[in-house]
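Input.
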Amino acid sequence: MAAPRDNVTLLFKLYCLAVMTLMAAVYTIALRYTRTSDKELYFSTTAVCITEVIKLLLSVGILAKKNRFGGKRYQQFDFGETGSLGRFKASLRENVLGSPKELLKLSVPSLVYAVQNNMAFLALSNLDAAVYQVTYQLKIPCTALCTVLMLNRTLSKLQWVSVFMLCAGVTLVQWKPAQATKVVVEQNPLLGFGAIAIAVLCSGFAGVYFEKVLKSSDTSLWVRNIQMYLSGIIVTLAGVYLSDGAEIKEKGFFYGYTYYVWFVIFLASVGGLYTSVVVKYTDNIMKGFSAAAAIVLSTIASVMLFGLQITLTFALGTLLVCVSIYLYGLPRQDTTSIQQGETASKERVIGV
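Output.
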């Protein structure tokens, strides 16, 4: 009877892998399409703001549902502690409305994530989706550096090698960026790369900072999300009117919005939260495979939709990045068991 359970577990992991891969690839391609189509260009700052609002509503709904129903039905998703609706209201009053210091603390990653998300729009306005996907993997060394500095973790020699290999691959991809022949809008590859550089720095710092906040208390992940998204709405609204306020007053908040733009917002909000739930069922190797598969899918889609011309440097750089992602996710060798085995064998030899 154990075999079926194993088969179900494997199928579920493959399902999680497919979800992460499709979310990453489709989001990038869809966002690129909305930024390079010949229709009226929407304000990216408003899209980022709406995404934060949807994430907040979803997090509140999930927390309320978890507290109200609980039980085995939701244990498989590990939403945290269970209880009544009254507990949900008390939790919001205590951790959100009654904790201005906590809101201020979470405003730091909110601000950084707001910058990151706006930089993603700027990058995909100036770089092909495949080039973006490859270059954005620089978030791995940035996150690694932040974990070393902020969480006092160490990297193995293989991980350091993979980090340098990844940087070399990205350098090759950016050396002569692949051009998309079907894109007619004016682009600035240097500006796009600069936007990605800022985005990966923000991603690394904000991710590690949020992890540190989560580990500093027993507060639920969904409560922390609500705190962060509340701050995020304030930050992104400020960004909307500081960056595009005059034009928005003239043209409207939803100027240039199409079904494709709403689809991008849907993927950014629902997809991001959903992936954060299923990601716990995968290991680092599967995450690495997912990132590599997303790069391949983005490349194929870019060739078909945008006329991407693949160069030798792009192909070699992409290969290096995919290999480095795989190497970085390999589990460390358990040297403790090896040393214990060697000690035991030596004892047996001495005993003989």
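Residues 1-8, 71-83, 334-340, 342-352 have pLDDT under 50 and may be disordered.
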